[in-house]
Amino acid sequence: MSAHVTTEAIRPSDFLGLDHLLDDEERLIRDTVRAFVADQVLPYVGDWFEQAQLPRELARELGKLGLLGMHLRGYGCAGASATAYGLACMELEAGDSGVRSLVSVQGSLAMYAIHRFGTEEQKQQWLPAMAAGECVGCFGLTEPDAGSDPASMRTRARRDGSDWILHGQKMWITNGSVADVAIVWARTDREHEIRGFIVPQGTKGFTAQDIHRKLSLRASVTSELLLDDVRLPAGAELPTASSLHGPLSCLNEARYGIVWGAAGAARACFEAALEYSLGRVQFGRPIAGFQIQQRKLAAMALDVNRSALLALHLGRMKDAGRLRPEHVSMGKLGNVDAALEVARTARQILGANGVTLEYPVIRHMNNLESVVTYEGTADVHALVVANALTGIQAFR
Question: Catalytic: 375?
Fold first, then answer.
């Protein structure tokens, strides 16, 4: 005897009803961030993208919502679950990848590095102000000749008495020129030793300059960091990070947020395409009524819902302490590739309108061309997954 089933109307952006898998607090956090994005981001982000800027004061507004370092505990941080943090990333990137990048770099890279590897004094000094958005951080790992292979970094840290002297260059650094503090990773004279350092803005020899003429992530500050024999006291060193494991563990936190964020960008593109197809009339009927467009809409809905389900599953795994870096690599690889496909398909449905900033699609599409590369390229994440499958490392 079958139980009576109440049929519930299908919502296009949540075809599978994943909303029912969230608890009340998670839905509240998601809805709060979604409302913030609708009010504080979407009306302005097209102009930000066109003008290649992101307002510095946005960090304070994000801090007021408790979104900066929200998955960390203590020091003014919210101590939210990994799933709640992921839901916030999804809604932020549904607004724009640049806004989610600001939150990811602040919380999952700069703040996380201090929270995990710093001293109590360092945590007290930096984390409360960073959680409030009063202090912006950046994360200096990537270099002009060391992207996918960070072990080949050339930035060096050498001892001079009790001080450290840093010399080198970092590239493609989100928040770099607006940051009050940088977490910089450098190789020491000891074999295989890589150390992290807290470098405040204004330190002699430390400069940041913006990278211009970007056609992606334009609503985001991207910079080059230059360290010309920067002298730092011993207290600037993050004492419990001594190898590449330090920065890579930070990157894994940020990549986890991207898994969710990409699902948000895909959803935004799908919703724009669906609405447009229902209103755009050609040959006497909405283009949504033509089979070829319906096939595109169905494929996009599949990718959007599958991406959200994957992100939610990884969030539950992370909250249960079962998430491995390889799982995050599969999530980033799958969800960013899917989001790019959704964005490109949505662009086709919108026709010529799809290349204007009146709609979000081309903005997301261009942004995702960066997202598929940063925090580990799609190729690298594919190799990470394949290494887990075969036991054979193909990096070298």
Answer: yes
